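Team,

Forwarding the record for the chain on the shared tracking sheet. I've put the sequence and predicted structure together so nobody has to dig through attachments.
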Amino acid sequence: MDLLTDVLQVSGVQGTLGTRIEAGGSWAMVLDDYPGAAMHAVTAGGAWLTVAGREPVELTAGDVVLLPAGTRHDLGDAPGTRAGPCDQAEAARARESGEVVRLGAPPVRTHIVTIHYSCDPATRTQVLTRLPDLVHVGAEVGADCFDDAVRMLGRELANPQIATTAVLNSLVDIMLIQLLRAWLATRPAEQRGTWLGMLDDPIVREALERIHQDPARPWTTATLASAIAVSRATLSRRFPAAIGQSPAAYLAQWRMDLAAIRLRDTHDSVEDVAAAVGYGSVPAFNRAFTRARGRTPGRYRIDARTRAPAR
């Protein structure tokens, strides 16, 4: 069981290629209206990233950064360079058309590729929303992870060919995985208390694997501990220390995530959905789901299908 892959799939993480920047001379761009989390990969040259409340961060070729959804930030040739009045409008058009945003003056010295990542709002078990306000993987750390993917991105963008769209869609997914791998390897302390904390605790990771493999099983802390051959006290202590939730709370949340997706995306009856996530009693499932999502399963299904954008 690959837990990270499972959570990324269930939480509906999707990446799309965003603004591409080619810049030279004095330049800057303000980014505050982009959809989802924003990843910037500097493929050539350099730039400065400025986020309110933080010291400016210098980015060089090979650096990759990830910022949460809605984080206003500036990219430019130097801290304090002011963006031109049309930059945001041009960036919005470029996102729609796939064109390059050219900033500053020739010759072009800096190339940046932006990728946007969105999550399925139906799920509460998320990875991207549990990351710090700024994830920065420097070229010296991420070289082995990013070099090939960044080079392929550059080639596909510069010389589109048959199935370029398919290649780009795969590469944006690879970029996220590689960023997480590189960051997680160097920041274990920052993972504690979030879902990613399981990566630093083999006991908790094994317990999560059992839950994900069979979410409908009537797990208790005691039966889960027995299944992985540790004491109940050990699991009760280490599980919340690693991911910030008790085994029972995590199991309930994961079941509700799975149920919410099935209610929205399938025509399965409420009885079938309830059984699939471990509830033999429909009234018990209705109570649990209503407590977790504020609506009955039937009402949730109607609302989700009415409001949810196509994915």
